[in-house]
Design a protein that fits this description.
about 210 residues; mainly alpha
Length: about 210
Protein backbone atom coordinates (compact mmCIF):
# COMPACT_ATOMS: atom_id res chain seq x y z
CA UNK A 1 0.00 0.00 0.00
CA UNK A 2 1.26 3.49 -0.95
CA UNK A 3 4.36 1.89 -2.46
CA UNK A 4 5.52 0.16 0.72
CA UNK A 5 6.81 -3.38 1.20
CA UNK A 6 7.95 -5.75 3.95
CA UNK A 7 5.21 -4.64 6.34
CA UNK A 8 5.46 -7.78 8.49
CA UNK A 9 9.14 -7.03 9.10
CA UNK A 10 8.26 -3.37 9.72
CA UNK A 11 5.72 -4.43 12.37
CA UNK A 12 8.31 -6.68 14.04
CA UNK A 13 10.91 -3.91 13.97
CA UNK A 14 8.43 -1.49 15.53
CA UNK A 15 7.68 -4.00 18.29
CA UNK A 16 11.38 -4.40 19.09
CA UNK A 17 11.83 -0.63 19.19
CA UNK A 18 8.83 -0.21 21.50
CA UNK A 19 9.97 -2.99 23.84
CA UNK A 20 13.47 -1.53 24.22
CA UNK A 21 13.61 0.56 27.43
CA UNK A 22 14.15 4.22 26.72
CA UNK A 23 12.92 7.70 27.53
CA UNK A 24 9.34 7.13 26.33
CA UNK A 25 8.86 3.89 28.25
CA UNK A 26 10.42 5.26 31.43
CA UNK A 27 8.35 8.44 31.28
CA UNK A 28 5.18 6.41 30.82
CA UNK A 29 6.17 4.14 33.71
CA UNK A 30 6.82 6.98 36.15
CA UNK A 31 3.59 8.80 35.27
CA UNK A 32 1.57 5.58 35.60
CA UNK A 33 2.98 4.94 39.06
CA UNK A 34 2.42 8.57 40.10
CA UNK A 35 -0.96 9.29 38.49
CA UNK A 36 -2.48 5.91 37.79
CA UNK A 37 -3.94 4.59 34.54
CA UNK A 38 -5.21 8.01 33.44
CA UNK A 39 -1.78 9.57 33.85
CA UNK A 40 -0.11 6.71 31.99
CA UNK A 41 -2.58 6.88 29.11
CA UNK A 42 -2.17 10.66 28.84
CA UNK A 43 1.62 10.19 28.76
CA UNK A 44 1.23 7.59 26.01
CA UNK A 45 -0.96 9.98 24.02
CA UNK A 46 1.56 12.81 24.40
CA UNK A 47 4.36 10.54 23.17
CA UNK A 48 2.22 9.49 20.19
CA UNK A 49 1.67 13.16 19.32
CA UNK A 50 5.43 13.70 19.50
CA UNK A 51 5.85 10.85 17.02
CA UNK A 52 3.35 12.59 14.74
CA UNK A 53 5.72 15.55 14.62
CA UNK A 54 8.65 13.27 13.81
CA UNK A 55 6.64 11.56 11.07
CA UNK A 56 5.81 14.91 9.47
CA UNK A 57 9.45 15.96 9.79
CA UNK A 58 10.63 12.79 8.05
CA UNK A 59 7.96 13.03 5.35
CA UNK A 60 8.64 16.66 4.50
CA UNK A 61 12.41 16.69 4.90
CA UNK A 62 12.98 18.37 8.26
CA UNK A 63 14.58 15.24 9.69
CA UNK A 64 17.05 15.31 6.79
CA UNK A 65 18.29 18.64 8.12
CA UNK A 66 19.09 17.06 11.49
CA UNK A 67 20.90 14.24 9.74
CA UNK A 68 22.91 16.59 7.52
CA UNK A 69 23.55 19.54 9.82
CA UNK A 70 25.72 19.05 12.89
CA UNK A 71 24.63 22.42 14.26
CA UNK A 72 20.92 21.64 13.98
CA UNK A 73 21.35 18.19 15.52
CA UNK A 74 23.42 19.59 18.38
CA UNK A 75 20.91 22.37 19.07
CA UNK A 76 17.91 20.04 19.27
CA UNK A 77 19.95 17.50 21.24
CA UNK A 78 20.91 20.16 23.79
CA UNK A 79 17.29 21.23 24.19
CA UNK A 80 16.17 17.63 24.68
CA UNK A 81 18.91 16.87 27.20
CA UNK A 82 18.17 20.07 29.12
CA UNK A 83 14.48 19.19 29.32
CA UNK A 84 15.19 15.67 30.60
CA UNK A 85 17.56 17.15 33.17
CA UNK A 86 14.83 19.57 34.26
CA UNK A 87 12.49 16.63 34.82
CA UNK A 88 15.21 14.88 36.83
CA UNK A 89 15.70 17.96 39.03
CA UNK A 90 11.97 18.01 39.70
CA UNK A 91 12.09 14.40 40.89
CA UNK A 92 15.07 15.14 43.12
CA UNK A 93 13.18 18.06 44.67
CA UNK A 94 10.17 15.86 45.36
CA UNK A 95 12.42 13.24 46.94
CA UNK A 96 13.91 15.90 49.21
CA UNK A 97 10.78 17.79 50.28
CA UNK A 98 7.60 15.75 50.04
CA UNK A 99 6.29 13.40 52.72
CA UNK A 100 4.76 9.97 52.27
CA UNK A 101 1.30 11.23 53.27
CA UNK A 102 1.44 13.97 50.67
CA UNK A 103 2.66 11.46 48.11
CA UNK A 104 -0.28 9.15 48.86
CA UNK A 105 -2.71 12.05 48.57
CA UNK A 106 -1.22 13.24 45.31
CA UNK A 107 -1.52 9.78 43.74
CA UNK A 108 -5.11 9.26 44.93
CA UNK A 109 -6.43 11.30 42.01
CA UNK A 110 -4.85 13.11 39.09
CA UNK A 111 -6.44 16.55 38.52
CA UNK A 112 -7.03 17.82 35.01
CA UNK A 113 -4.25 20.39 35.30
CA UNK A 114 -1.79 17.65 36.28
CA UNK A 115 -2.87 15.49 33.35
CA UNK A 116 -2.45 18.42 30.98
CA UNK A 117 1.05 18.97 32.31
CA UNK A 118 1.81 15.27 31.84
CA UNK A 119 0.66 15.47 28.22
CA UNK A 120 2.86 18.49 27.51
CA UNK A 121 5.87 16.88 29.20
CA UNK A 122 5.41 13.66 27.22
CA UNK A 123 5.07 15.58 23.96
CA UNK A 124 8.19 17.65 24.58
CA UNK A 125 10.22 14.68 25.84
CA UNK A 126 9.57 12.88 22.57
CA UNK A 127 9.65 15.86 20.20
CA UNK A 128 12.97 17.21 21.54
CA UNK A 129 14.82 13.96 20.91
CA UNK A 130 16.63 14.35 17.57
CA UNK A 131 17.62 10.68 17.61
CA UNK A 132 13.97 9.77 17.06
CA UNK A 133 13.75 12.11 14.07
CA UNK A 134 16.87 10.62 12.53
CA UNK A 135 15.62 7.13 13.39
CA UNK A 136 12.44 7.79 11.43
CA UNK A 137 14.48 9.07 8.51
CA UNK A 138 16.70 5.97 8.59
CA UNK A 139 14.01 3.33 9.21
CA UNK A 140 11.04 4.31 7.07
CA UNK A 141 12.80 4.52 3.66
CA UNK A 142 13.85 0.87 4.01
CA UNK A 143 10.21 -0.13 3.62
CA UNK A 144 9.37 2.19 0.71
CA UNK A 145 9.69 1.01 -2.88
CA UNK A 146 12.18 2.97 -4.93
CA UNK A 147 9.55 3.25 -7.65
CA UNK A 148 6.79 4.44 -5.31
CA UNK A 149 4.67 7.07 -7.04
CA UNK A 150 4.29 9.22 -3.90
CA UNK A 151 7.05 8.77 -1.37
CA UNK A 152 5.59 11.40 0.94
CA UNK A 153 2.36 9.40 1.20
CA UNK A 154 4.43 6.28 1.88
CA UNK A 155 6.30 8.07 4.68
CA UNK A 156 3.03 9.22 6.22
CA UNK A 157 1.49 5.75 5.95
CA UNK A 158 4.43 4.03 7.65
CA UNK A 159 4.62 6.78 10.25
CA UNK A 160 0.92 6.36 11.05
CA UNK A 161 1.46 2.60 11.36
CA UNK A 162 4.40 3.12 13.71
CA UNK A 163 2.44 5.58 15.85
CA UNK A 164 -0.63 3.36 16.05
CA UNK A 165 1.32 0.24 16.97
CA UNK A 166 3.45 2.15 19.47
CA UNK A 167 0.37 3.66 21.11
CA UNK A 168 -1.22 0.22 21.50
CA UNK A 169 2.03 -1.07 23.04
CA UNK A 170 2.19 1.79 25.55
CA UNK A 171 -1.47 1.39 26.49
CA UNK A 172 -0.91 -2.29 27.22
CA UNK A 173 2.24 -1.38 29.15
CA UNK A 174 0.27 1.10 31.27
CA UNK A 175 -2.39 -1.51 32.06
CA UNK A 176 0.33 -4.01 32.96
CA UNK A 177 2.22 -1.80 35.42
CA UNK A 178 -0.77 0.10 36.87
CA UNK A 179 -1.42 -2.53 39.63
CA UNK A 180 2.00 -1.70 41.10
CA UNK A 181 0.56 1.66 42.10
CA UNK A 182 -1.50 0.01 44.85
CA UNK A 183 1.70 -0.48 46.81
CA UNK A 184 2.10 2.33 49.34
CA UNK A 185 5.80 2.71 50.21
CA UNK A 186 6.94 4.26 53.47
CA UNK A 187 8.67 7.63 53.37
CA UNK A 188 12.17 6.17 52.98
CA UNK A 189 11.09 4.01 50.06
CA UNK A 190 9.15 6.89 48.52
CA UNK A 191 12.19 9.14 48.66
CA UNK A 192 14.35 6.39 47.18
CA UNK A 193 11.92 5.85 44.32
CA UNK A 194 11.80 9.56 43.51
CA UNK A 195 15.58 9.87 43.73
CA UNK A 196 15.98 6.76 41.57
CA UNK A 197 13.67 8.25 38.96
CA UNK A 198 15.69 11.45 39.05
CA UNK A 199 18.92 9.52 38.50
CA UNK A 200 17.30 7.64 35.63
CA UNK A 201 16.23 10.79 33.82
CA UNK A 202 19.56 12.48 34.54
CA UNK A 203 21.28 9.45 32.99
CA UNK A 204 19.00 9.61 29.94
CA UNK A 205 19.79 13.32 29.62
CA UNK A 206 23.53 12.58 29.69
CA UNK A 207 23.07 9.78 27.16
CA UNK A 208 21.24 12.12 24.80
CA UNK A 209 23.76 14.92 25.32
CA UNK A 210 26.62 12.57 24.36
CA UNK A 211 24.81 11.05 21.36
CA UNK A 212 26.52 11.32 18.01
CA UNK A 213 24.77 11.80 14.68
CA UNK A 214 24.20 8.46 12.90
Amino acid sequence: MFGTHGLALFALTTLVVNATPGVDMMFTLTRTLQQGIRGGLVAALGIACGCVLHTLAAAFGLAALLAASAAAFTAVKALGAAYLLWLAVGMFREAATRRAAAFAASTAAAPAASLGRTFRQALLTNALNPKIAVFFLALLPQFIDAAAANKTAAFLYLGAWFIGQSLVFLVLFVLLVAPLRRWRPNDAWRRSLQAGGGLLFAGLAARLALAERP
